[in-house]
Every structure is written in structure tokens, then in C-alpha cells.
Design goal:
It is built from 26 helices and 18 strands. The protein is an alpha+beta fold. About 5% of the residues have low confidence.
């Protein structure tokens, strides 16, 4: 194992890491020429614009413009600071960091302190479940729900005794900072000073992130108290709308199977896993969010969502329809028999029967439509159905997908597509602020293509063909550029070349001051070469000539009205044209 100072660790990790292998564990990548492409994990898209370049060990998304190296990806994907990313990747690639860095990386951040406090709390809950008389009823409950001791241990399931200060006293004995336990959502401050336990009289389910750290807890009450389920409140590390229970343990199986099975609760997930279904995850009592689906599409090519056959299940299916559509991830609905949830069904009927239900799963839209059609035989019922479904269809951003849904709706209801489109247009008549902004962006982008074409040609030439830099530096190259972002990049390249006789893309990236310049450089690095090696010489000659012509034109404007200066300038122009002709003739010879 390599042992180096912290100041050198970053370069050592970049040297030994394979960015394609690393990102490929979280994003489905396919080779496309010299790059790998996939759906971006940072924004919604249906066509892949996320590119990974193995030669330069960088990634870039042409959609949301996020990009960088292995550290940038780790920080963005895991919501980590640079010191956290450095330590995680050092451990992953067996690089031992010694000494204290100037960035204070050895000082425990608030997030790390919360993780440590959560871990201590999990010890308390586990001990209360397994080794105390207080946990007897909780152990009986888990046994009756077919949760084995091995499963309980693997997922660190525990029990919070029905006490106001059990965890408070435990943390005091551990000399823990109780204010951090408040920040972690474990304790609640009293009005008159002191603290009390948030979780009391509940089975406790620790919730892990993909790095197997406990970010929060879910608690299920044993008696009849409300709420039935209680989660950690939002904290610096716990964001309910982004987390899926069990994903840390199921991600590999999801990737291997190519699908994810989404259930509603902890017990549903644990029951399925106990019977051998490894590709399941559970929501934390919330509706599915774009963040949930975006995370899953890095592992799965389709999702099966398990719904109850009641009204609540139908509503949940309908609400999730635009989420899956916007993220471009196919989803099917699994319908359970009335009175069952996944936990009760698999325990009563076994895994084989549950797998049969998965095989019969139908697309989400068809599921909702079939369920509603059984209830909406009358004309009034059809109108009621339209009032429910058309607002949801208006949120589906993909026009082809929306057209497909309208066609199916027309066939099922016996209402003409034109009439349905007319009603849909009434709902969607006023574009949202976001849609207006997107339209403006597209217009501005289209108008700017021609203006920046020459800038991008020069930038592409400089970045991909460094041997051309010396000659380009010698001409009046600044006159060729109109875009400030490109100008900043080219200036940085030429400055480093002038100082060192060479440059690297990493050093140029580090030398850029604006984020827009870094985005532009990443984009050029991940795009194909404009010029082949055989075309580089001709491209340089053309740019030299263009620079001369622009310089002369600018000078003509400057000296307009000065006849003598103008005559001198015309003579200079003729000399340069003769020289250019002689150069072209000798080159052809």
C-alpha cells in the first residue's frame, strides 16, 4: 500500500484510478468511439449526453455542463466535500495519506460528526433490541414478521425503548456532544433546557447511503400510537426525497438483473430480501421523486413498482407516471391481491408466486387506465377519469410519449384524439416559467452558433494539436476570437506554453479562473477532433491568413482619412499577399 503526504495524494489517486470503472459502478456506460456515454446522473434526460473520456480520465455532461475528474464526480454524486472524497478514494485505491494537510482535512466536518453520532445511536438501539429485557416485545414482533436474526444484524435493526432519556443517558456516558445528536435528529431540545429522545417505543431501521454510512433512522411504533412511522427529520446528511432504503445492499443485484423492484416500506423490503429477492428497494414513506428515479437509472434499465390495488395505489401510480417519463426510465406496475402488501404476500405465498406477479406487470399508464375503466363505465365516469388524468399528462414533457398516451386514452374511452388534445391544450395553455426560459435559451444558443464557430475551430486546434501552438502564437491570434470564454482558455494555453515550452490540459484547467471557461474546455476535450493530422497544416495556414486579413482591415479603418498612411498600408498589403503566394507555391512544390 502506497503511503504519501496528503499534498501528493490527489495526483497519486488520479494516476491509479480508472474513471470509466469508477463511474461505471453508478452510471450505465456504453462505448461510443473513444469515449463512453450514458444518461447523466445529475439531471433528467432521455438521450445520453454524459460522456467519460478514458484517455484524459475526465467526464463531462453536454446537458447540465457538470464535469471534471474522479474527485469531482465523487463529490457531486455522493454530496461529499473534497477532503471526504480524498479520503474515500484513497481508501478505495489503497493510498495511505500521512500528515496533516493545509486544508484541514483531518478536522472532522459536521457531516462526519453526525455519521459518528448516528453510529453510536445504532449501537444503543441494537443493544436494546438484542440484549435487554426491554427488547422482548420487539424481538417477538420481528420473529412474527419472519425477520431473521441474520437479517436484523446485517441491517443493524434495533429498538428504542419507551423512555424519554434512554439515548440521552447513553450518549452522555459515551461523552458525545448532545448538540450534534440534535443536529442528527436523534434528540429534541426541551424548552427549559436539556434534551429528550425523538424515537421511543419503536423498532428502529437505520438508513444507509451508498457508502454504507448511517444517514438517519426510521422507526415503526409497536403499539397503536401515531404516527405509525417516524423518520429522522431533514439534516445535513439525511434528505428523504433522495434516499432509497436498501439501495446500498441491492445496487449490485439491480445492476446484474437490469431491474429494480420498488416497494413502500422497510418491512416489505426486508421480507422480499429474506425470501431471496435481492433487487428490491423501498421508499421512505414518500412519493417517488426525480432524485429517486435518477439514482436508479444508473443501475437498472427498467423499474417495477409494487402498488396496492386500492384507490391509494392507483393514485400513487398516476403520480409517478410523469416522474418516470421525464427521466426516461421504463416502469411497470405490479398489482397485489386485495388485502396484501409485499410483506404479507411473500410470507403467505412464497417468492415464486411473487415473481409471477412481476412477470405480469404492465406499463404504469395501462395499469391506471385499466383500474379506472373498471370503475368508469358511465359517461360521467369517463369525464371524471379525464379530469384526473389530463393534468398528469400535461406534466409529461416528452411529446412522443404524450402522444402515445393520448392515443391509448382515445382507444379506451372512445373519444377522438382531437378532442383530447383540445382539452389537454386548455390545461397546458400557459407555459411555465421554466418552459419560457428553455425556449429563450434555445433561441440564444441557435443565434450564437455561427458567431462562435471560428472561436471553437481555433480552440479545438489548440487543444487537440499542441504542435500547432507555436505558429498560432506567432500570428495575431486575438483578432480571430470574439468569445471571452474561448479567449481565456487560449490565453492560458499560450501563456503556459510561453513559460514552459509545453502545456497539459490539467494545468490549463487549473489555471482557468471562470467556471464557464472550465466547462467549455471540458466540452471541447470530450468532442471529436475537427481536424485530422493531415488537415492541421492547411487549417493553420488558413488561420494565419485570416488573422492577416483581419489585421489589415482593422488598420484600414484606423487610418481612414490619412492618404499617406493608407498608401503605405496598401503597399504593405501587396507585399504580404506576394509573400503568402510564394509560401503557398513552395508548400505545393
Amino acid at each position: 500500500m502506497t503511503s504519501i503526504s496528503q499534498s501528493s495524494a490527489k495526483e497519486e489517486i488520479k494516476r491509479v484510478a480508472d474513471i470509466v470503472q469508477l463511474i461505471g459502478q453508478f452510471v450505465q456506460l456504453k462505448r461510443a468511439g473513444r469515449n463512453f456515454i450514458g444518461l447523466c446522473p445529475f439531471h433528467a434526460e432521455k438521450a445520453p449526453s454524459f460522456t467519460v473520456n478514458p484517455e484524459r480520465q475526465t467526464f463531462h455532461c453536454f446537458g447540465c455542463k457538470k464535469g471534471g475528474d474522479v474527485f469531482t464526480f465523487w463529490m457531486e454524486y455522493h454530496n461529499a466535500s473534497f477532503p471526504e472524497a480524498l479520503r474515500d478514494l484513497a481508501e478505495r485505491y489503497q493510498v495511505t495519506i500521512t500528515g496533516k494537510g493545509s486544508d484541514g482535512a483531518n478536522e472532522r466536518s459536521q457531516s462526519e460528526a453526525i455519521f459518528k453520532t448516528n453510529d453510536m445511536a445504532a449501537d444503543y438501539f441494537q443493544t436494546a433490541l438484542g440484549q435487554s429485557e426491554k427488547g422482548v416485545e420487539a424481538r417477538k414482533y420481528l420473529k412474527n414478521r419472519s425477520i431473521s436474526a441474520e437479517t436484523a444484524s446485517e441491517f443493524r435493526i434495533g429498538f428504542a425503548p419507551d423512555e424519554w432519556d434512554g439515548l440521552v443517558d447513553f450518549l452522555k456516558r459515551r461523552h458525545a456532544d448532545l448538540s450534534l445528536a440534535v443536529q442528527a435528529g436523534l434528540l429534541v431540545p426541551k424548552k427549559n433546557g436539556g434534551y429528550y429522545d425523538r424515537f421511543r417505543g419503536r423498532i428502529i431501521f437505520p438508513i444507509f447511503d451508498l457508502r454504507h454510512r448511517i444517514v438517519g433512522f426510521g422507526g415503526r411504533v409497536l403499539g397503536d400510537a401515531l404516527p405509525k412511522y417516524l423518520n429522522t427529520p431533514e439534516t445535513a446528511v439525511f434528505r428523504k426525497g433522495e434516499l432509497l432504503y436498501g439501495l446500498h445492499a441491492s445496487s449490485r443485484a439491480i445492476r446484474e438483473k437490469g431491474r429494480a423492484v420498488i416497494v413502500e416500506g422497510y418491512m416489505d423490503y426486508l421480507a422480499l430480501r429474506g425470501h431471496g429477492l435481492q433487487e428490491a428497494v423501498a421508499t421512505l414513506g414518500t412519493a417517488l421523486t426525480p432524485a429517486h428515479v435518477r439514482r436508479l437509472k444508473g443501475y437498472a434499465s427498467e423499474v417495477l413498482v409494487v402498488f396496492d390495488a386500492d384507490e391509494a395505489g392507483q393514485s400513487a401510480a398516476l403520480r409517478s407516471l410523469p416522474v418516470f417519463s421525464e427521466e426516461g426510465l421504463p416502469a411497470r406496475a405490479v398489482v397485489l391481491p386485495e388485502g396484501h402488501d409485499p410483506d404479507s404476500f411473500v410470507n403467505a405465498n412464497g417468492l415464486e408466486r411473487f415473481l409471477e406477479l412481476l412477470e405480469k406487470a404492465c406499463p404504469l399508464f395501462d395499469f391506471y387506465l385499466e383500474q379506472k375503466m373498471q370503475e368508469s363505465g358511465s359517461e360521467e365516469g369517463k369525464i371524471h377519469l379525464l379530469k384526473d388524468i389530463l393534468p398528469i399528462l400535461s406534466e409529461v414533457g416528452s411529446f412522443p410519449m404524450r402522444s402515445l398516451y393520448i392515443r391509448r386514452l382515445s382507444e379506451k374511452l372512445g373519444i377522438g384524439e382531437g378532442a383530447l388534445w383540445s382539452e389537454l391544450e386548455k390545461i397546458s395553455k400557459s407555459p411555465s416559467p421554466g418552459e419560457r426560459r428553455d425556449g429563450i435559451k434555445e433561441q440564444v444558443s441557435a443565434c450564437g452558433v455561427d458567431r462562435k464557430l471560428g472561436d471553437l475551430q481555433l480552440l479545438n486546434l489548440v487543444v487537440h494539436h499542441p504542435h500547432a501552438v507555436r505558429r498560432l502564437m506567432a500570428c495575431e491570434w486575438k483578432i480571430l476570437l470574439s468569445d471571452r470564454t474561448v479567449l481565456e482558455i487560449v490565453e492560458t494555453v499560450f501563456e503556459q506554453y510561453h513559460q514552459r515550452g509545453q502545456f497539459s490540459n490539467d494545468s490549463v484547467m487549473d489555471g482557468l479562473k471562470s467556471e464557464s471557461a472550465r466547462e467549455q474546455l471540458r466540452e471541447v476535450l470530450h468532442r471529436p477532433f475537427i481536424y485530422s493530422e493531415q488537415e492541421v497544416e492547411q487549417a493553420v495556414v488558413e488561420m494565419e491568413g485570416k488573422a492577416r486579413r483581419k489585421a489589415i482591415s482593422a488598420s484600414l479603418k484606423e487610418f481612414r482619412g490619412d492618404i499617406n498612411s493608407l498608401n503605405e498600408l496598401l503597399k504593405l498589403k501587396a507585399c504580404k499577399q506576394r509573400a503568402a503566394g510564394e509560401h503557398e507555391g513552395s508548400r505545393r512544390e
